[in-house]
């Protein structure tokens, strides 16, 4: 039994060491983040970014060199190159809108940064440019921060937009009103035609009332918009309540 376990463990362990990020088997949240990232189909991509004399070759849970190497990110300056982190020392953190992948245990700094080993992080954020890696921070001859940070856009990090097939309340309201108006016009026109033998514009039901409302609306526009008018004549609105002379003048043939 122990042998089977050992063999099983070795298979799992080895498959994770080479060409992939090595995640601790007992860290469930990290494992879940890793499984989600596998769906991005980004592992094995070889991203290169150039900045001020340094070229960075960045592997996403893969080595930019070859499948059996553990170096995850390589920085090349004019004639030196450093490994910035290894696939066998990986940390994954997921926040609300980002995932942070950190490779540790790279080459040591020389006489700076307490001679610590280099480590580098890639921040995955929502976006569509999966090839354009951005350098947010990098230790170079001109930048003495003891850190490397890259940012990469991944479409899968974007929030899922749920398509709402249902009509909104407002749309339903407008459709109902529109249908009622159409039915009113059609039925009214038929009624006017059959009952009163209407012709032309007379087909519109309650024509007189609509004319009055149209007149009021026009007056409203006049009153509100024509600011240059110096003396709006008094009782203008209320004139409409009396016999409607002006509109009849306009509308009658
Ligand atoms: C590039 O490096 C030079 C010196 O190596 C430095 O003067 C310059 O500010 C750097 N530029 C950027 C954008 O970091
Ligand atoms: C990744 O890119 C670097 C730099 O362009 C190159 O040297 C290396 O061979 C590439 N690796 C793979 C696996 O394509
Ligand atoms: C691939 O990786 C192995 C192990 O690190 C190394 O010995 C070999 O030189 C690498 N091959 C290339 C082409 O980089
Ligand atoms: C290569 O590095 C050495 C020291 O590591 C330096 O003296 C030399 O000038 C560098 N050569 C180039 C071409 O940058
Ligand atoms: C870093 O390493 C060098 C030797 O490579 C040593 O002389 C120096 O004291 C070390 N610095 C620190 C802060 O440990
Ligand atoms: C992606 O980013 C790179 C580098 O920032 C840029 O050169 C490239 O044009 C971008 N591609 C798209 C489709 O935006």
Automatic annotation (TrEMBL):
Which PANTHER family would you find in this protein's record? CATION-DEPENDENT MANNOSE-6-PHOSPHATE RECEPTOR, MANNOSE-6-PHOSPHATE RECEPTOR FAMILY MEMBER
Q: What is this protein called?
A: MRH domain-containing protein
What is any Pfam family matched here? Man-6-P_recep
Q: Where is the MRH domain?
A: 1-160
Molecular function (GO) terms for this protein are:
protein domain specific binding
Please state the span of the N-terminal signal peptide per the UniProt entry: 1-19
- Protein species of origin: Rotaria magnacalcarata
| GO annotation, biological process | protein targeting to lysosome
Organismal lineage:
Eukaryota, Metazoa, Spiralia, Gnathifera, Rotifera
Report the transmembrane regions from the record: 167-191
Compartments in which it is found: Endomembrane system
Q: Provide this UniProt record's keywords sorted from A to Z.
A: Disulfide bond, Glycoprotein, Membrane, Signal, Transmembrane, Transmembrane helix, Transport
């Amino acid at each position: 039994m122990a042998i089977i376990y050992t063999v099983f463990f070795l298979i799992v362990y080895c498959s994770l060491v080479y060409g992939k990020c090595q995640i601790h088997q007992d860290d469930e949240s990290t494992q879940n983040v890793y499984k989600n990232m596998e769906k991005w189909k980004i592992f094995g991509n070889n991203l290169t970014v150039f900045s001020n004399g340094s070229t960075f070759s960045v592997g996403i849970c893969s080595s930019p060199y070859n499948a059996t190497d553990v170096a995850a990110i390589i920085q090349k300056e004019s004639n030196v190159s450093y490994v910035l982190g290894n696939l066998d020392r990986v940390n994954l953190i997921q926040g609300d809108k980002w995932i942070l992948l950190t490779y540790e245990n790279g080459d040591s700094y020389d006489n700076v940064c307490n001679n610590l080993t280099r480590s580098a992080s890639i921040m995955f954020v929502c976006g569509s440019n999966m090839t354009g890696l951005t350098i947010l921070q990098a230790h170079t001859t001109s930048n003495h921060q003891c850190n490397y940070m890259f940012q990469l856009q991944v479409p899968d990090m974007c929030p899922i937009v749920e398509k709402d097939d249902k009509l909104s309340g407002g749309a339903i309201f407008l459709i109902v009103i529109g249908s009622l108006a159409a039915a009113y016009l059609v039925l009214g026109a038929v009624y006017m035609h059959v009952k009163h033998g209407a012709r032309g514009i007379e087909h519109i039901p309650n024509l007189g009332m609509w004319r009055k409302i149209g007149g009021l609306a026009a007056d409203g526009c006049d009153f509100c918009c024509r600011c240059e008018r110096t003396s709006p004549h008094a009782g203008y609105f209320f004139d409409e309540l009396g016999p409607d002379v002006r509109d009849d003048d306009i509308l009658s043939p």
